[in-house]
Amino acid sequence: MEQVPEVMVKEVGNAVRMDIVMSEAAAPKPACLESPTEPTVTVEEIQKKLEDAAIRRHSLMSEKQASLAARISKIEETHKRKEEIDQQFIKSTKEALEQKLEAAEENKIKLLNDLKTRVKEELEKIMQHHQSKENEDLEQAKSLMDAIQEKLETAAANRDQNLQAVVKRLKDHEEAVNRCLTSQKEQLDALKDKINSQLEKAAENRNAKLQEIKDAAKEHDKKVDAIKQKKEGEEN
Questions:
Q1: CA end-to-end span of the chain
Q2: pTM reported for the whole predicted model
Q3: How many domains does the chain have?
Q4: 111-124 b/e with 16+ CB inside 10 Å = b?
C-alpha cells in the first residue's frame, strides 16, 4: 500500500511551521529470499490500483489541506485577536501612562508652586529678621557711639581737670622753686658777706702777724747788733 504524505503544522511564536512527511523511514530490506510463486497480475489491475491510490492520496491531500487551511485560519484569527488584545493593552497602557504623566505634571507644578510659596515666605521671614537685625545693630551702634561719646567727654573733662591740676602743681612748684632760689640767694649772699668778712679779718690778722714778725725781726736784729757791739767793746 502506498504511503500518503503527512502534513504536520506547528505554531512557533507568531509564525506557523509546516512539516510534510512524504513517507515513513524505510526498514532495512531483508535478505533476498526466493519468493513463492505468486499469481500473475495484469496491467489493468496495476493501473486500477495506481488510480485508486492516486484518488486516495488526492482525497487525503485535500483533507490535509482543508485541515491545514482551518488551522492556518484559526492561527491567523488567534494572531489577529492577539494583535487586537496587544493594541488594546498598548492603548490602555498608553492612556494610563498619559494620565499618570498628567497627574505627575500636575503634582510637579503643585509642588513647585508650594515650594515657591514656602521659599517666598522664608525669604520674607529672612528679610524681616534681617531688617530687625539691622535695626537692632543700628540701635546697638548708636548706643555704643553714645557711650563712646560720653566716655570721650568724660575723658576730656578729666583731662582738663588733670591738666588744671598739673598746671597748678607746676605753678606751685615754680613758686616753691622761686622761694627756694630766693632763700638760697639770700643765704648765698649772706655766706658771701660772711666769707668776705672772714677773708678781710683773716687778711687783717695776717697783716698783723706779719707786722709782729717784722717787729720781732727788728728787735732781734737790734739785740744781735747790741750783742755784737758789746762783744767788740769788750775785746777792745
A1: 236
A2: 0.29
A3: 1
A4: eeeeeeeeeeeeee
